[in-house]
Amino acid sequence: MSQAKEFADETGQEQAGAHAAPHHHPANLAHHFSDMAQQKDSAKMGMWIFLLTEVLLFGGLFCAYAVYRAWNPEIFHNGHAFLDVTLGTINTIVLITSSLTVALAIRFLQVNKIKLAVINLAATIAFAGTFMVIKYFEYMHKIHEGQLPGKFYTFEGMEGTNPHVFFSVYFLMTGLHGIHVLVGIGIITWVLIRTIKGHFSSEYYTPVELTGLYWHLVDLIWIFLFPLFYLVG
Amino acid sequence: MAATITAPAPNYLNATKGWKSWLLTLDHKRIAILYMVAIAVFFLVGGVMAMLIRLELLNPGRDLVGANTYNKLFTLHGAIMIFLFIIPGIPAILGNFLLPILLGARDVAFPRLNLASWYIFMLGGLFALYSIITGSIDTGWTFYTPYSTQTDTSVVSMTLGAFILGFSSILTGLNFIVTIHKLRLPGITWYRLPLFVWSIYATAIIQVLATPVLGITLLLLVVERLAGIGIFDPAMGGDPVLYQHFFWFYSHPAVYIMILPGMGIISELITTHSHKKIFGYKAVAYSSLGIALVSFLVWGHHMFVSGQSELAAMLFSFLTFFVGIPSGIKVFNWVTTMYRGSIVLNTPMLYALSFLFLFSIGGFTGIFLGALAVDVHLHDTYFIVAHFHYVMMGGTVMAFLGGIHHWWPKMFGKLYNEFWAKIACGLIFVGFNVTFGSQFILGSQGMPRRYYTYVDQYQPLHAFSTFGSWILGAGFLIMAVYLIHSLVKGKRAGSNPWYSLTMEWETSSPPPTENFIELPSLTHGPYDYDKVLPINVEPDGKPAKLKEAVS
Predict the structure, then answer these.
(1) Strand pairing of B491-492 and B414-415?
(2) Chain B residues lying within 8 Å of A150, measured CB to CB
(3) How many degrees, rounded to 5, is the angle at CA A174 between CA A169 and CA A178?
(4) How close B61 gets to chain A, by Cα (Å)?
(5) Measured distance CA(B363)–CA(B365) in Å, rounded
(6) Distance (Å, rounded) from C-alpha B75 to C-alpha B151?
(7) Contact check, Cβ <8 Å, B216/A46
(8) pLDDT value at position A140?
(9) Percent of chain B with pLDDT over 70
(10) pLDDT of residue B551
(11) Nearest-CB residue to A46 (from B111, B174, B239)
C-alpha cells in the first residue's frame, strides 16, 4: 500500500514538474533506461518473448492432443459428443468480447479517457468471470457423470478402448487454460485498481498494454481449444 | 606526485553494506555473486556425490553403499550438476556480471525480474533439497516413465524443483535477450559485440524456446504421479516414448544451453591471452546461432533404442552430424586465432587450451554415438558417460573455470596466486583424463551405466578411474584454498591485468555500482589487437602499459 502511495506521489510530482521543466526526468522511468521509449520497447519485447514461452508450454499439450487423437480417433470422435457445444460457443463469444473490452481500455487510456478505461477493464473481468462460471458448470457436470481423466474415469456410456484418454487431454488442456484465465483475472484486477488510482494515462500505460497482450493470448488459445474439442468430430 | 594517491572510489562490493543490501539488491553484479555462492554450494554437493560414486566403484561388489543408495547417488549427482550447476552456471554468474558491462549498460533490462530469477532458483533448490531429505530419488536425472511413476522415492518434489528451476532459466534468458536488443550503448552494433555476448544470446534463445516444453513435460509427470491420469502409462493407453520425446526436445537443446556460454568464454580467453584479433568473427558469431538452430532438430538421437521408427532414427542420426559443422568452425577459428599470436600461458589460457583438447575429444566421440549402428553397441555404456563428461566437464566446466579465473580480478579486484592456480589446473586436467579417458575403454568393452557393481575384468580400469577422481578432487581443493585466500590477502588487481581490449577492462576492478564512471570511449572494437595497445591502470592510479605480456 505504502509503495503504491509513494508511486502516486511520484506521479503527482511528475505532473507538477512537467509544467515547470519540459525535460524533467519522468517518474516512471527506471534509472537504467535512457528514455521512456526505450523502456516501453524493452517491456513489450520482454512480454512478447514471455508469450512465446506460453505458446511452447501449450505446444506440448497440443502435441499430446495430436498424438492421442491420431492413435484413438474413435475415442476422440465419441468423446466430443459429450461436450456441450452451446456452452462452448457462449464461452467463445464471452472470451472474444473480453479481448475487445481490454483492447478498448488500452485505447481509452491512450486518449486519456480514464473513466471509460476503468469501465472496460471491469467489463473484461466480468467476462472472464462469466467464462469461469460456465466452465465450472461444465466441469461439475463431467465430474458428476464420472467423465474424468485416468483412474477416476467411471462413466460407462462411451464406447471404445481407453475412453478416459480423451478426458485426460480435455481436462489437462482446458484446466491449464483455466488457470491462465484465473491469473489473468488477478492481473487485470491489479491494473484496474491502479487505473482507478490514476497511475495510468496517455503518458504511461505500459502495464495495461502488456496485460492486454497476455489476455489476447489466453483468448487465442481458447479459440484453438474450442474447435479441437467441441466441434471436430 | 604523492598527492595523486587518493582513497579508492566505492565499488559495487562496498557501496552499500548489510545482508539486506545483498538479498534485496537489484545490481546485476551483486546478483551474479549471489548466484555464484549458491551454485558453488550445489557444485560442491554434486562433486562430493561424484567422489562417493567413484569410491563405490573402486572394487566390484559393495564397498561403500548398496545398490539402492548408489541409484540415488548417481541420480542426485546428475540432477544437481545439470539443473543446479551447469545450466545456470555460466549465464547466471558470468553472464549476469558481464553482459550489461559489455553492452555499456547500467544494468539488465529487468533488474527486479533478475533478482526474482535468483529467488526462484533458490526455491527450486529447496524443492530438490526437500526431495533429498524425504527419501531422495532413484530414477536417473531423466525421470523416465514408467519407472518414475512407480518408484516410491520423492519424484514429485524433485520434478517440481526442476520445473521451478526452468522458470528461473526462462526469465534469465528473456532478460538477456531484451537487454542485448535494447540496451546496447549507441555505437555498439551487433558486429561490435564481444563473442561472449553472441553466445549468451544464442543460449538465451534456447532457454526461452526449449524450457517451456520441459515445464509442461514435468508438469504432466507430476499430474500422472499424483492423479494417475495415465498419459504416459501404456496400460492406460498412454505412451512412455512420448515422454522421452518431450523430455529430449528440451534436454537436447539444454546441452547447448550448457556448452554455448562456455564457447563464448573460450573466444574471449583465446583472443585476450593470445593478444590477437579473433579469426573469423562472423563465423564464430553465427556458428553459435547455428548450434542453437540445429540443437532443436536432433533430440531423437537419445532414443535410437527406445522404439522410435527406423526412419525417424535415420533422420535424427543424419541431422546429428550437422552439429559437427558449427562446432568445427569454432574450433578451427580458435586454433587459427592463436597462430602467430603473442600467447601468454596464464591460468585462464591453460583452461582454454584444456577446453580445446577435451572438447574436441568429446565432440568426436559424439560423432561415433550419432552413428546409428555404433550407437546400438555403445548405448547405455560408460562410453556415453565418458563422452558427455568430456563435453560437459571437459568443455563447459573447463571454460567456466577459465572464465572464473579470467574475470576473478575484475569481479573482486584481487589477484589469485598464479603458481597454485597453474598447479590446480594441471591436476584437474590430468585427473579429468585419468577419470574419464579410462571410461571410454570401459564402455567400448561393454561396461553398462548405472550399476554399483561389475564383473572382475573391469576392475583395473575402474580403479584407475577412481584414482583420477582423487586427483580431480585435489585440484578443486587447491583451487578453493587459493581463491578464498586471494579474497583476503590477494594482491590488488589493476583495471586490466590481462591487457585485454574488451570493454569490461576499461572500468575499475571491481567496477563501480553504475559500471562506468565515464562512458567507455568506443575508439576500438573488442578484438582490435592489430590496431591498439591495451592499457592497464594499476590500483594506485598509474597506467602500466602492455610490456611483459607481449615480448
Answers:
(1) antiparallel
(2) 224, 227-231, 236
(3) 150
(4) 41
(5) 5
(6) 13
(7) no
(8) 94
(9) 97
(10) 44
(11) B174
Separation in Å, CA A135 to CA A95, A146, B82? 12, 16, 40
Query: What is the per-residue pLDDT for B3?
Result: 44
Grid cell, residue B328, equals 568445427
Choose from B114, B216, B222 for mutation: most chain A CBs within 10 A: B216
pLDDT tens digits, one per residue of B260-280: 999 999 999 999 999 999 999
The residue among B172, B183, B226, B231 with the most chain A CBs within 10 A of its CB, best to mutate, is B231
How far lies A144's CA from each of A83, A140, A157, in Å? 14, 6, 13
Residue A232 CA, chain-centre distance (Å), reads 24
| Cβ neighbours of A32 in B, within 8 Å | 100, 105-109, 111, 183
- Tell me what the mean pLDDT of segment B91-110 comes to: 96
Give the model's confidence band at B1: pLDDT under 50 very low, under 70 low, under 90 confident, else very high. very low
Which ranges of B14-154 does DSSP label H, i.e. alpha helix?
Answer: 19-23, 28-56, 67-79, 87-90, 96-103, 111-133, 147-150
**pLDDT tens-digit series, residues A190-233:** 999 999 999 999 999 999 999 999 999 999 999 999 999 999 87
Cβ of A63 and B110 within 8 Å? no
Counting other chains too, the contacts that B535-542 makes at CB distance below 8 Å and 24 or more residues apart are B535/B496, B535/B499, B536/B494, B536/B495, B536/B496, B536/B497, B536/B499, B536/B505, B537/B494, B537/B495, B537/B496, B537/B508, B538/B494, B539/B8, B539/B413, B539/B492, B539/B493, B539/B494, B540/B5, B541/B4, B541/B5, B541/B6
Task: Decide if B505 contacts B534 (C-beta within 8 A).
Answer: yes
**Which residues in A lie closer than 8 A to residue B210 (C-beta atoms)?**
56
Å from B60 to nearest chain A CA? 43
Residue B11: is its pLDDT beyond 60? yes
Q: pLDDT by residue (tens digit) across B25-65?
A: 999 999 999 999 999 999 999 999 999 999 999 999 998 99
> Which residues in chain A are closer than 8 Å to B181, comparing Cβ atoms?
42, 45
**What totals of helices (H) and strands (E) does chain B contain, helices first?**
19, 4
Cut 0.90: pTM above it: yes
Residues 6+ positions from B14 with CB-CB distance below 8 Å: none
